[in-house]
Amino acid sequence: MDHAGSSSGRGAQSPHAHQPWPHPGQHQHAQQHPLTAETLQTQQRNVAPPHRDSSTWSLSDQSQFSTGLSVDDENDADSALGDVDDGQQSTQSIRSSIYEYIEEHGRTFHRYKQGKYWLPNDTLEQERLDLQHTVFTMRLDNQLGLAPLAHPPQSVLDLGTGTGIWAIECAMKYPSAQVIGTDLSPIQPEYVPPNCRFEIDDAEDDWLWSEKFDYIHLRMMFHCFRDHLKVIKSGFTHLQPGGYMEFQDWLPVLQSSDDSIRGTPLEMWSKLYLEAGGKLGRNMLAPKSYKRWMLEAGFEDVVETRLAVPGNPWPKGRENKRMGYLQMTNFLEGLHASTMTLFTKGLGWSPEAVEVFLVDMRKAIKDLGIHFYWTTVVVYGRRPL
């Protein structure tokens, strides 16, 4: 989803009241895992990769990196885990739409710019987003990002902030920074650190901030924009010289190093997900182009890193199993909402047909004999000094 300070040049006040953080403390994350040292991180600087869009992407196209995951032939996941846009709208109607939701298939969705973001915004989804944050930080060795910030940032923008958990943790990590999180839904908590605030905004609209940021962060935005390059160019313009912009995403193409995914519902879901997104006007493989687009926008020292996240607790190693279990739970909890929306609106499926398909999908997701993984793509670049 489209994810503070008194010096902000934003034209309108945030719709959320600023409240002191009542009980400072770190969010609890899963223990760090050992994958990073074992995983080849693809880091190619300043050379734009060849572009391939959704129509030419093959599910058999393996990313050129080692997943660092080994199959556990004696898999006992439970024991291993242990405890583990209308200009004529009035301001009043816009503000009203921000706080109103619509309901589809038993879930609530944002009304402001209705339909732009496909996932719901209800309590179930908020809990899933926080779980997803845990998986991301776990995979990044408990870091909020990979950009090599030379100094603690003083002004941070988090686009698509969702529940605001990344922005809140960033504000706690950098207490001297002013952190702004933006989103289409006002689902962020009321009580936040004093240096963090949230605004309702669409990153594809013109950016009205007068200040420049040291760090701009976006996570899981691959399906949110029709024009990613426009957003990247806006980010470049609103960065301080030497500031960084960073994308963190998963490619929605499930893969397995040993081909155990072949012929399974997981393989079919990947193909249909890409097709549905394309028919709805979204480039579902946008993360493969982030580096090229950032170079085109003028960024330098652009680095792309790819890391594997196991889809369930199939690999060896306690931390790998823990991460796989969390990601399996994340996928299961988000599966219905994302699939129902895309398959009914993009492919014309009936809700009943989607429900039938998801029965086999849930079984496949939990099948430890299918050694599938998600590819995490992190791309960051620096605005020249």
UniProtKB/TrEMBL annotation:
Region (Disordered): 1-92
Stored Pfam families: Methyltransf_23
Domain of life of the native organism: Eukaryota
Biased composition (Polar residues): 1-11, 55-69
Record's keyword terms, sorted: Methyltransferase, Transferase
Matches recorded under InterPro entries: SAM-dependent_MTases_sf
Low complexity: compositionally biased ranges: 15-34
Sample GO molecular function, one term: methyltransferase activity
Coiled-coil annotated spans: none
Single GO BP term: methylation
Signal peptide extent: none
Family according to the record: Belongs to the methyltransferase superfamily. LaeA methyltransferase family.
Name under which the protein is recorded: S-adenosyl-L-methionine-dependent methyltransferase
Lineage of source species: Eukaryota, Fungi, Dikarya, Ascomycota, Pezizomycotina
